[in-house]
Amino acid sequence: MSIRIQEGGHEISGALKYMLKKFEKMPIKLCVDPEEGALHIARYIALAIRQKQQDNQYLVLGLATGSSPIKVYNELVRMHREEGLSFKNVVSFNLDEYYPLKADAQQSYVRFMHEYLFDHVDIDPANVHIPDGELPIEKVEQFCADYDKKIQFFGGLDIQILGIGRTGHIGFNEPGSWLSSKTRLVKLDHVTRVDAAKDFGKEENVPYRAITMGIQTIMSAKQIFIMAWGSHKAEIVREAIEGEVSEMVPATFLQGHANVKFYLDPRCRGRANSG
Ligand code: GLP
């Protein structure tokens, strides 16, 4: 007989809970809703920033774009305004940027980061790093090598936050990305371009390429928080946390990270297993 329990307003049977745990190859946190997950991650980041402040050190943050982390940024901005959380000792490195794309384009990740975080906190603009979508092609390779070097110069990423694309990409590491990949220029998967079409008006307007941190760059972070909300991510999330590690689902590489946590809501984790 299975015991029925309430989880996030959704009823999950004891048997189903056991089944979920049995197949998980990385730690997950099933949140009541995206707000709960965002609060948890934002509080962890705030604590880490304050601890580093006490030691007079930088906190090196790897940042993501997309809808998934927006609530984390909202909470960090709130903490800055209402609780005096300072970002003066934060150095940030964003995961990726479309290529080519002007920084002032509506869809650029530079614009996104300013809109949701940087314009509302006291981070030193000199400490903000985002892959440059405006570079001439002959300068991209050197830029990417320097990006990884800069991360190392600051002692590596302390915390990396991630979303997941429907292809299983993290950053823009599409299927076929190697574990040893570093920051580089990549070709976007067709599914990713279809998903991005809503931001660019139509698919033809979506750039074919992007600059992304590599899998190795991401895996070198000391702590990784990945998040996915909603039933449209359920299938790829199931592959990421239950599937064999494979280049075809780059997020599966995270199974090999010693300090990763996957934040999910019941819509995202329940449905893929119930059918
Ligand atoms: C883009 C970003 C990824 C992000 C993904 C998911 O492809 N490059 O880093 O994880 O979108 O976006 P969303 O959170 O909106 O589902």
Write a concise synopsis of the structure shown:
With 275 residues, the chain is α/β, with parallel strands linked by helices. It has helices at residues 14-23, 34-54, 70-83, 109-116, 137-153, 190-200, 215-219, 234-242, 266-274, and strands at residues 4-7, 10-13, 28-30, 59-63, 90-94, 96-99, 128-129, 159-162, 184-187, 209-212, 223-228, 260-264. The chain has one domain: Rossmann fold (3-Layer(aba) Sandwich), CATH 3.40.50.
Describe the structure.
The chain is α/β, with parallel strands linked by helices and 275 residues long. It has a single domain (47-209, 222-232, 248-268), classed as 3-Layer(aba) Sandwich (Rossmann fold). It contains 9 helices and 12 strands. It has helices at residues 14-23, 34-54, 70-83, 109-116, 137-153, 190-200, 215-219, 234-242, 266-274, and strands at 4-7, 10-13, 28-30, 59-63, 90-94, 96-99, 128-129, 159-162, 184-187, 209-212, 223-228, 260-264. The strands form 3 sheets. A 7-stranded parallel sheet has the order 3-12-11-8-4-5-7, with helices on both faces. Strands 6-10-9 form a 3-stranded antiparallel sheet. A two-stranded antiparallel ribbon has the order 1-2. α3 links the parallel β4 (59-63) and β5. The longest helix has 21 residues, at 34-54. It is globular, with a radius of gyration of 19 Å. The structure holds 2-amino-2-deoxy-6-O-phosphono-alpha-D-glucopyranose. 2-amino-2-deoxy-6-O-phosphono-alpha-D-glucopyranose (GLP) binds at residues 64-68, 95-96, 163-165, 171-172, 192.
